[in-house]
Amino acid sequence: MDRSEPFYGPDFSQLAREDPEVAQVLLDEVARLRGGLQLIASENLASGAVMAALGSSLTDKYAEGYPGRRYYGGCEVVDRAESLAIDRAKALFKADHANVQPHSGASANLAAYAALLQPGDTVLAMALQHGGHLTHGSHVNFSGRWFDVVSYGVRRDTELIDYDEVRELAIRHSPKMIICGATSYPRLIDYSIFRGIADEIGAWLFVDAAHTIGLMAGEAIPSAVPYADVVSFTTHKTLRGPRGGGLLCTEELTQRIDRAVFPFTQGGPLMHVIAAKAVAFGEALRPDFKRYAAMTVENAAALAEGLAAEGMRPVSGGTDTHLTLIDLRDLGVSGAEAERRCAAAGITLNRNVIPYDPEPPTVTSGIRAGTPSVTTQGMGVGEMKEIASLVAHAVRDPGAVTSVLQRVKVLTATHPAYPRDE
Ligand code: DSN
Fold first, then answer.
1. Binding site annotation covers 173?
2. Which of 119, 129, 229, 332 gives a 20 to 30 Å CA spacing to 396?
């Protein structure tokens, strides 16, 4: 067992001694990450500093409440972590207010609904099948169960959001809140159009920026903050921080958002995660994060272009963000089968529904591939061309698995995940 891994923090050797079974899981996961290409669009590789904060004694502290207003004693030290996270988030996103306590993107979204709506209110949101999210009105989620959700989608011909449809639905249904933001929409969203529609009918505008927040922070794409009443985000995707969520809002909504997170939808905050969020915001405030965000987008465009050249059609013709959604119908391979074939060849990505998909979500006609992790590993446009070729070979020909795996090893050897000198 290699006990010299720097990213586990100072206590890995103790874990290895006291619980070798769990220690081995940690080692195996790092081996898995280092041994293949990680193209899941919602994942990234956090820094050693983020990991150190996560693996700290701050996990022990109960701190219900907010800095300076806690329901427990002994919070004066963890208060500093949360204040740092809030101040850095406000500076990074140029937001009036930040709440850094949501445990995840879904928890942040639950709090946003709670802050702005009553059960039974009408919401207008993007359909999951067109790139939305479970929390945007799926019937198996609180959002679809407790709210009256009207869905908009993308046009069949362009596969772009149909803003005319959004406006028509908004006028017809008078939703109290309009949601935009997506998990598998590769293009920019025009927040100014959504703001105009929300203003026209007197609705709140809630932007779920879980996927794109890091690109916004790095100014690689326009920010939603100037347009939205509330923005939810995750810290572990393009932002490259710890697994978690957050909320940004206008001054006016500060109290509603804070109360919706605690005490309405959450109890004690995870102070070790909040400290790690502060670290990640600090990292994203540095100039090199701008380069990272720009490279993530440039890489996704190169990957989409490379896949298109291999006969794998990118939905909407390309991407403006960190991900591409590929329509596999011309290849006669389902998304589920493509996911399996790629996995066998050392490429981790996920099957994904495409707009108007004839297949169910367990099968799908598409795959989604993202560049946050491989960009963190220092790969660039040249490597994206190679990755496109590898994905195409793996998907088309299960017999190519050995040769693809060998080429994957070359890429991961030259651009390792968690380099040892970090
Ligand atoms: N699971 C996330 C994603 O992969 O997009 C969304 O919650």
1. no
2. 129
pLDDT in tens, 295-340: 999 999 999 999 999 999 999 999 999 999 999 999 999 999 999 9
Output the ligand 1 site: residues, CB below 6 A.
Answer: 42, 105, 133, 183
Closest atom, ligand 1, to C-alpha of 183 = 5
Domain annotation for the chain: domains and CATH numbers: 57-284 (3.40.640.10), 295-414 (3.90.1150.10)
Asked if residues 204 and 177 have their Cβ atoms less than 8 Å apart, the reply is: yes
H, E, C per residue of the chain: CCCCCHHHCCCHHHHHHHCHHHHHHHHHHHHHHHHCEECCCCCCCCCHHHHHHHCCHHHHCCCCEECCEECCCCCHHHHHHHHHHHHHHHHHHCCCEEECCCCCHHHHHHHHHHHHCCCCCEEEEECHHHCCCHHHCCCCCHHHHHCEEEEECECCCCCCECHHHHHHHHHHHCCCEEEECCCCCCCCCCHHHHHHHHHHHCCEEEEECCCCHHHHHCCCCCCCCCCCCEEEEECCCCCCCCCCEEEEECHHHHHHHHHHHHHHHCCCCCHHHHHHHHHHHHHHCCHHHHHHHHHHHHHHHHHHHHHHHCCCEEHHHCCCCCEEEEECHHHCCCHHHHHHHHHHCCEECEEECCCCCCCCCCCCCEEEEECHHHHHCCCCHHHHHHHHHHHHHHHHCHHHHHHHHHHHHHHHHHCCCCCCCC
pLDDT at 403: 98
User: Hey, whose CA ends up nearest to atom 5 of ligand 1?
Assistant: 183
Selection from 78, 79, 137 nearest residue 113 by Cα: 137
Cα distances from 88 to residues 119, 227, 289, in angstroms, run 33, 20, 14
Ligand 1 nearest atom to the CA of residue 134, by list position: 7
Query: From ligand 1's centre to the CA of 234, what distance in Å?
Result: 10
Alpha carbon of 20 to ligand 1 centroid (Å): 31
Given a contact cutoff of 8 angstroms between Cβ atoms, the answer to whether 256 and 22 are in contact is no
Residue with tokens 């994203």: 284
What is the C-alpha to C-alpha distance for residues 67 and 278, in angstroms, rounded to an integer?
A: 14
Q: How far apart are CA 122 and CA 176, in angstroms?
A: 6
